[in-house]
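**Backbone geometry record:**
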Amino acid sequence: MGKGKRRAERDGARAKKDKVWVCRGCCCGTKKKHPGVDHVGLEKQLRAGAQAAGARYEVTGCLGPCGQGNIVVVRSEGRLRWFRKVNSTEVADAVLSVLTEDDPPAALDGHRLRKHDGKKPDPD
């Protein structure tokens, strides 16, 4: 077997499966931080949606930035996308659509998290 073929096989083995991480650290998923949010229901919805799309699902410790919770990270086609304020079924559905659609829906416009967003909550 040539070096090129071994490299291709090795790179294929490294391909990462789509995955959804849901933060349940210090602030995300707590009634104290987010009263009125059905955290258990959202977690079930995210788990079921990830599995239906063939993605792995994992509840994780604090992902930071805590002021932006609930934080959800989606790896799709090798790309990581971070989302903030995933506190409703509509936003959770929009986050899950990243696993199956090329263009994220407009419903995610205020929920994308970028490095420069930091740990302070939005004023809204």
Remarks:
- The chain is about 30% helix and 15% strand.
- Residues 39-52 form the longest helix (14 residues).
- The mean pLDDT is 83.
